[in-house]
Amino acid sequence: MLKTKILPPNSEGISEAARLLKSGEVVGIPTETVYGLAADATNPEAVAKIFLAKGRPQDNPLIVHIAALESLETYVKDIPAIAYTLAEHFWPGPLTMVLPKREIIPDITSGGLSTVGIRFPSNKLAREVISACGKPLAAPSANLSGSPSPTTAQHVFDDMNGRILSILDGGACTVGLESTVVSFEGEGIRLLRPGFVSLEDLLAVTQNVVTDDGILNMLPEGARVLSPGMKYKHYSPRANVTLVEGDLSKFTKFVSEQGGDGVISMLFDSDCDGFPFENLTFGDTASAQAFNVFAKLRECDALGAKSVFVRSPDRRGVGLAVYNRLLRAAGFKVVKL
Ligand code: TXA
Ligand code: MG
Predict the structure, then answer these.
(1) Global confidence as pTM
(2) Quick check: CB of 29 below 6 Å from ligand 1?
């Protein structure tokens, strides 16, 4: 079997990644959010390899990554003024804007949609790779479809060994969960996926923000889906995940009633003193939880968990994104104590 190569975060690693990408191959690359499975966004054969490696449904569109604001208009058109304002505030960084695509972006990249998600990442290696290959890079998160997003090169290797040629190792991603995704309605914006750029951050720029129903609710069968990624069960370890709302004492009692074998609790750091059952902690602040959440879900699998009970996080700021990912990891199973 082909063994996937890990490339070092230096000029040789960057040149090798760029060479592979230019020749139509798929490479795992770091970004500030999560690792991406990158290919030349303008090359349909290269993009097809992403869907194959990931096992991703073909109607789920990819995000296109650019390395300079000036190239925005090469790939998308009819850009509203508010999009430039958002770019000024949040680019380079973890914000994706859905805009009408130009023909240079093939249909396979946009999942057949007339729009495409576009992002200018802040991660230095990501930008250097994009610049070195001279192409915009289509990149979904570099996990197997459905499993937790990868935040280290090792996570990518665990999912993709034998499926792609190389991974550029940029260390742990600083944000830890995927970018905020917005679309535009007139001069207003719609939040399709919460991320490190929070609802509060967006509201500080414009009051004209609508939060999509798909963020906190399971979409009914047949509903018109604005962000196709919202349709799928997502971010899930093999273990059965349940989100648990209620204070620590109720949580402890609840876990004690679950029959201990293969049960792991995911707690806040401040909870763990004296907690009597097997547990992992995923941080106290929302940004620490964002950084840890996917790595900890993967660790639950490595520990052989059958059931994972997760303390439900605060939903303010970045917390909304943490909650949104956990809700999907749990397949919307929430217990209110
Ligand atoms: O942080 C990120 O965004 C990472 C890194 C690698 O940049 N990428 C990422 O890609 O999370 P992915 O494919 O795992 O998630 C993309 C999300 C999906 O929910 C998809 O449906 C939505 O963005 N999306 C992409 N293009 C869209 C479009 N044209 N219209 C609506 N939603 C779109
Ligand atoms: Mg993903």
Answers:
(1) 0.96
(2) no
